[in-house]
Amino acid sequence: MTSSAVQPGPPAPPGHEENAYRTAVAQFDAVAERLHLERSVAEVLRSPKRELTVNFPVQMDNGTVRIFTGHRVQHNEARGPVKGGIRYHPAVTIDEVRALAMWMTWKCAVVNLPFGGAKGGVAVDPRGLSLSELENLTRRYAAEISIIIGPERDIPAPDMGTDARIMAWIMDTFSMNVGHSVPGVVTGKPLSIGGSQGRVEATGRGLLYITQEATRAAGHALDEATIAVQGFGNVGATTARLMIAAGARVVAVSDVAGGIYRATGFSWEELQPALERHALLQDVVQGVDKLTNEELLALPVDVLVPAALEGQITERNAASIRARLVVEGANGPTTPEGDAILAANGIPVVPDILANAGGVVVSYFEWVQDLQSFFWEEDEVNVKLHRIMTRAFNEVSALQAREGVTMREAANMLGVGRVAEAFLTRGIFP
Ligand code: NAD
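YS: structure for the whole thing
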């Protein structure tokens, strides 16, 4: 097999440690070596299978037309149709989407779903658009990528900057183009059009289950733990709410503007208005200590949950982390250099591809329900989610103990190993 056209991500320029593709490729290369993957197999697995970049016009409210750039990357489909979120964020690049697609492949394999990985994104700040501009942009982007998505091929879902309403527009646009309703083309939809009970909070709930397992394995109880959560969106806010409900002390939370801290912990009633009003935590929760995101990351808590974006724990600040355990809610919040420092300091990290997999697990349930047109109760969803998350945690922990590696290395070994096995079993066409 000849060398692939897709080369490893570029080295990180000084001050830009957060090139997610560089992180993803570095992690993959380390695990490929550990698994003794044949060079040609490693090249196939590290290369995105299909990449689509679209530049498309959107009619703005003031009558002007703006051009936006979007991507959809399908990383690997050895284990089944590909699946992954769509991100609306000004910093979206093809490299970031490639990294996120690759992580989705390993994540789906770690929790043993019959999916490969994909990801999409548009470089846009959705907060700067009116509702009709957001709808125009979404429908046009959906139409542009509709040539490669579909319930048997590639099933998008929400990610940063996108939500159930946006999934509804994508589902409707795709359905209009084919002439009939296709609920299974996206997950994370509203319940009224084929969404699943429990999907909105699934990533946070999965994080809760994983944190319960991880603290129990370390000999602590979650209801005695102090928690700091970076990010107060779908993942961060749900995690904070469920941790508080489980009896843990959430002492700090933050959003893009900074965070709030109280040693005795927050109640959900205090935090909820910030979520409901889409307002900043520091503006809504008064009379408490304010802190920067950097200060939040360095708090001496039992559990630190980075749930905002990638590249947060790096060479620059990893030595200041004093948490006893890091549970990654975001994708790629720790760079390889940051990871090495945490490992040297004896701080265990439950990696993203295990910790935040609850979202894609319930997305899988939603897809199954859509295909069968037969819908489950919330209890049923949560019981099945718990079973899958705890099984994956136990499998990763057993591999970690057997191989004497970090939890990230073990999760990567499990995920990459399963994808390699599927690829080798299928063989190469023709
Ligand atoms: P979101 O858009 O709902 O929320 C993002 C949060 O991060 C917001 O509170 C925002 O204010 C905050 N934020 C943005 N920039 C920040 C910065 N520089 N510093 C601190 N906070 C900042 O996004 P989300 O869906 O909660 O996703 C968060 C992370 O979790 C992403 O990495 C995403 O890929 C990952 N993830 C999401 C899901 C899901 O189901 N939504 C599933 C798995 C992983």
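YS: worth flagging: The first strand starts at residue 50 and ends at 59.
IM: good catch. Also The chain is about 45% helix and 15% strand.
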